Amino acid sequence: xxxxxxxxxxxxxxxxxxxxxxxxxxxxxxxxxxxxxxxxxxxxxxxxxxxxxxxxxxxxxxxxxxxxxxxxxxxxxxxxxxxxxxxxxxxxxxxxxxxxxxxxxxxxxxxxxxxxxxxxxxxxxxxxxxxxxxxxxxxxxxxxxxxxxxxxxxxxxxxxxxxxxxxxxxxxxxxxxxxxxxxxxxxxxxxxxxxxxxxxxxxxxxxxxxxxxxxxxxxxxxxxxxxxxxxxxxxxxxxxxxxxxxxxxxxxxxxxxxxxxxxxxxxxxxxxxxxxxxxxxxxxxxxxxxxxxxx
Length: 295
Known about the structure:
The protein is mainly beta. It has helices at residues 55-58, 112-115, 120-126, 251-254; strands spanning 8-9, 12-13, 26-29, 40-45, 65-70, 99-102, 105-110, 128-133, 150-152, 164-167, 177-178, 186-191, 207-214, 219-221, 238-241, 244-249, 263-271, 286-290. It folds into two domains: 17-152, no CATH class; 164-290, Sandwich (Immunoglobulin-like). 6% of the residues lie in helices and 29% in strands. A five-stranded mixed beta sheet has the order 11-18-17-13-14, with no helix packed on it. Strands 3-4-7-6 form a four-stranded antiparallel beta sheet. A four-stranded antiparallel beta sheet has the order 10-12-16-15. A hairpin with a 2-residue loop joins strand 1 and strand 2. It is elongated and about 85 Å long. The two termini are 50 Å apart.
């Protein structure tokens, strides 16, 4: 069953799936390393296809091409369209020529999110759908020359959706009590891919508006308010992968507080630059306790 689950591992988002490549006509080389945003090699063993149109014999003398329509099919005229000209099926795109690995075995290497011009979620949802054919696929009154339709299924890793994660992970029911001091690196990782708020989805630039509090409840800020965060480059989140944003600090170096005072709590708000109203901020309220002090 397909799902949209995404799991964080430390500060990086990693995608994995499992499939049994052995005995299959179409599979991925090194499937355990699959990540839609990284290069992968699609493999096809023509000898394991149905061979209804004689593709095995055709491959003895002709080059093979991939013809793909999912996760997304490029329109006519696109540099990666399946075919060119007025009779596209009879003239496969040279950009889609496959590599002959051995007799009857062909490969095609792509970075899925780049090749199909879609996000990782779409790759996981749609899978890879394609067939293999020579440059001239027949048709238009001639017999077809191709494999049957082939599919490689890819699934995201299992696990609950994690929208906001800290590194190190906090203690307690809400994971909001830090065991490190404010002299240590503290990171907040935000998964915009899991954002439910429509106005904050597909964000490209995000900032953190942090407020630190000492034991007496006195507040310390970098920006005077959330609308001014873009004036402070040190408050910008770093995009480490598509939709994944990270903000790492050493609290005692980010905030300036009086001698003898300690930071015991930091509140975070994630916002878009040039915030206007609540539509430009996520709804989650993030409060982290630093019980050991540190400044």
